[in-house]
């Protein structure tokens, strides 16, 4: 039985290394156990092939076993932005935003609008998400990435961008060869948490609780952002069907980095495909955001979350609030971890700019695009800054006339 499985899986790997996992289900007349075994062998062989090809995909179970990821990306230390508490990153006090007196609230909304316009990035304090819940979700995801045996993770290793649970290295190893110094776990948590790895046993509960609390926070921020654009609080939420929003949780683990090059790149510059991303880290800095043409290292206030504007923010606001380019650098001896909770429009919503935000004489900057299509497009190609937005951007010629092709 096993030699036969190895042979079949090897054949699949040789024929088509990036064969999506779902195709394995289509193989005729295999019982589920054989299918599962075949999938494990296929994943292991795929990893071996990637390593032999020099791309060095590290299985996340053993993310830094020998300290090498050949062909990976690094940045010179001179390119690492300055940061620290005086970097000027805007701070939003959530408590004032929801409970403040009318004048305090109005001021907080104006400040939020300026943060979105100038940075597309801010910290949120007094957000009400308990510290012990943050710790629990990060610890559970660390256990999943670092302590679970390969067989437990195998079925998620070959997942594609639209699969509900995914474990991998780099950005998307099929397109980037896992050049980046990162292992990740991603899971769709809303509108349904249908698929959740069975281990660690507490993952489902802890992820659900964290998703509910962070979704509530992000939806309230969406209301305030809508007001900051001069719209009704509900307007932006309605435009994207955020009540049944699509939400992803992700954990990033960046192993310690020992060169070559000065600083390893964990994630290349990109903007997020969703509407708003909430992020916290394990006390090791590494997130950088682009601001006024420079990379700024983001150092959080104690307990704060970072909030990052995504591509849907740029589309729905008709370009008033841009999505923010950011990247993750890693370096030094300490492993870095970050937890991401991102809300996006409902997958079937066609996202387009709120018409009230059309600019005088210019009209709308973006055409409508179904969020599912946008996400698939951004996630299936190499990360390239915020270039994915171009598929939704209205092209104009020099005279400003709309180009219809
Ligand atoms: C991401 C991301 C940055 C970080 O997951 O999209 O940008 O600091 N992460 O981990
Ligand atoms: Ni990101």
Automatic annotation (TrEMBL):
Residues 63-84 are annotated as: Disordered. Keywords: Iron, Metal-binding, Oxidoreductase, Signal. GO terms for molecular function: metal ion binding; oxidoreductase activity. InterPro entries: DIOX_N, IPNS-like_FE2OG_OXY, IPNS-like_sf, Oxoglu/Fe-dep_dioxygenase_dom, Plant_2OG-oxidoreductases. Residues 1-16 form the signal peptide. Residues 241-345 form the Fe2OG dioxygenase domain. It holds the Pfam family DIOX_N. Belongs to the iron/ascorbate-dependent oxidoreductase family. This is Fe2OG dioxygenase domain-containing protein. It comes from Paspalum notatum var. saurae.
